[in-house]
Amino acid sequence: MGKLSSNIFVRIGVSLLVAVCVFLLSYNGAFRTVDDRFCDLIYQKSTNPIDVIKIVDIDEKTMNALGNPSSWDRQIYADFVNNLMNSEAAPSVIAFDILFTGEKTAEGDAAFVEAVKSAGNVVVGINRDSREKMSKDGSGLEYDIVYPYEALKNVSTMGMADVETEKDNYVRKVITGASYNNNWYDCFAIAALRKFNEYLNTHDSFKANFERKYGPLVISDYSANEIKEYRFSYIAAQGDLGSHFSFLDIYEGRIPADFKNGIAFVGAYAPGLQDYFSVPLSKEVSGSDMSNNMYGVEIHANIMQALAEGKIQTDANLFLLSFVYALISGLLCFLMFKLRLLKGGICAAVLLVAAFTFAKLLYGAGIYIYIINLIFAVLAVYVGFIIFNYSIARAEKHKINKAFKMYVAPEIVDEMAQNGDFKLQLGGRNKDIAVLFVDIRGFTTMSEKLRPEEVVEVLNEYFTLVTDAIFKNKGTLDKFIGDAAMAVFNSPFDLDDYVYRAVCTARDIAKGSEIINKNLMGRYGRSISYGIGVNCGEATIGNIGSPFRMDYTAIGDTVNTAARLESNASAGTILISDEVKKRLADRIITEEQGEIPLKGKSVGIMVHKLIDVVC
Predict the structure, then answer these.
(1) Gyration radius from the chain CA atoms
(2) DSSP states of 89-136 as a string?
(3) Contact yes or no for 132/141 (Cβ under 8 A)
(4) Fewest 10 Å CB contacts: which of 9, 119, 323, 497?
């Protein structure tokens, strides 16, 4: 890729710049929402819910029969709890994802308290007050707790039922609990799980069956953990977690047998109750806009199983993660300078696969890492080097074109580069062309009288004239031979009116020589002249030489004849062949020179002296 890629300081500098940019973007949380959504796709996968989870839906069916829950007398909840606990299919836990704040009717409130007290396994929700206030010591924000009414508070287990959303309104994290007035309150899911564990410890037979199927239940003391916020893995999408039952059926005494020993999560399950949130797992729900939403009661059930199975994650150290991504990106950038695009693409692909695999392994081990920044960095580095290679290739092409313009008319090179339809053919082929040879007359004598640098100056001045004339008429400068030059027309690419252009080139050289001679007489008191020969006909054109060194040139009798015409031309004379005369007819003015013998030919050829060209 040229000198740029071989310069170690450039490679190090660019790689360090890439590393710093990646570090800053990663550490400052650029693309965080995109990263969350992407990580949802690679991390969140449905698994198998434990069979003890039962979801009791306060659904449309229930509301059609009993009205909106906000208007219910608490006698309804009392009857619900009593029906469950008095049945042969009594659950191990009843967890109400409901805030029983304030008092309603004395009879209903008392009946519900009595039912909860009798059951001894009821968990109810509490919330942090959304009104934030600064702590008295100024250390940060604190919250008030919204409790159930006092009588219920004293007989039930309470759990924080808040659902925390991210910036994109998705639920991905759980706060395990909060301290308030020197009391620790578990989150709703943990409170339900502890209640279930109490049940296991008093029902040996059920515990043995449960542990045989799912293993021992281990619940951490999250109040002692420094980390209070965790990401969690969803177990199932909306409607797929546990068995679902209508609240109305339980309330009216229709209790299935498989409810026994289950954990009954009770909560809103109708769009009108506005208790649903966006979640990573999606599921098409016919006739509903709930495809990527989930009701709060199911979210708590998902959290409970995730906690029970240890499927929770803490965020990796952001500084360390950003540093690692910066290091990887910088090293990849450094390597890319020396790799071809295909190998670089393979290297980038292998790196991304390794990153995905490592991220999944860490996720399974309880560590959550953002990965989109690394993906963007790797792709940006690779795309950057595609652009870099393209730019280098264009620069090299420009250099080649510039060099080619030293041999072929620049406008033809530009047209050829723009069209992109020219291809040099290996080997040789026959083609009709025009050939021009020009030689300086009197140059040897002059060079004996001039200093070497003056000889070179004169020669360059004359060859500049010759080159300009050739390129002006769109010919190809084939080669310089000492103080002579050879040009071809209609090779290597097709050229219109090429014989006429060759003759015009000879005329232009003749006219330019007059000006050069005036300058030479003024500078050195001497002049030089020229001899030119022009012929046309079929010749062999192609790559001539060896595999190690070759020239693209023309050979054959047509070329040899043009050279012989030039050698026979006296100073200041342009000789053309009879074939050139015939093809151009009245477009040129000539003077017949007669037949002259040519070296190497048994028969002479008719030669004409060019007097002028008719425009």
Answers:
(1) 46
(2) T--SEEEE-S---S---HHHHHHHHHHHHHH--EEEEEEE-S--EE-T
(3) yes
(4) 9
User: CA 385, CA 342: separation in Å to the nearest integer?
Assistant: 11
Do residues 586 and 566 make contact, with C-beta atoms less than 8 angstroms apart? no
Residue 115 has pLDDT above 50, yes or no: yes
Among all chains, which residue has been given the structure tokens 């012989």?
564
Of residues 172, 186, 207, the one with CA closest to residue 302: 172
Q: How far apart are the first and last CA of the chain?
A: 49
Round to whole Å and give the CA distance between 113 and 154. Answer: 9
User: What is the reported pLDDT for 31?
Assistant: 83
38: its two tokens:
């992407």
pLDDT at 4: 47
Report residue 426's pLDDT band, with 50, 70 and 90 as the boundaries: low
Sheet strands (E) in 316-382: 367-368
- Tens of pLDDT, residue by residue over 369-402, are 999 889 888 998 888 888 887 887 777 777 766 7
Strand duo 183-186 + 177-180: pairing: antiparallel
Task: Phi first, then psi: give them for residue 184, nearest 5 degrees.
Answer: -100, 130
Query: CA 101, CA 152: separation in Å to the nearest integer?
Result: 9
**How far is the C-alpha of 68 from the C-alpha of 63, rounded, in Å?**
5
Burial letters 39-74, b for 16+ CB under 10 A, else e: bbeebbeeeebbebbbbbbbbeebbeebeebeebeb
The string over 280-289, giving b where at least 16 C-beta atoms fall within 10 Å of a residue's C-beta and e elsewhere, is bbbbeeeeee
Distance between CA atoms of residues 591 and 271, nearest Å: 105
Ranges of beta strands (E only) in 299-338 are 312-315
287: left (phi over 0), alpha (psi -120 to 50) or beta: left
Contact present, 195 and 93 (Cβ < 8 Å):
yes
Report the pLDDT value the prediction gives residue 404, as an integer from 0 to 100.
Answer: 64
**CA neighbours closer than 13 Å in the CB half-sphere of residue 218:** 6
Q: What pLDDT is recorded for position 23? A: 93
The model's pLDDT over 71-113, given as tens digits with 9 standing for 90+, comes to 999 999 999 999 999 999 999 999 999 999 999 999 999 999 9
pLDDT digits (tens, 9 = 90+) for 329-356: 999 988 888 887 788 889 889 999 999 9
What are the pLDDT digits (tens) for 34-70? Answer: 888 889 888 988 888 888 999 999 999 999 999 999 9
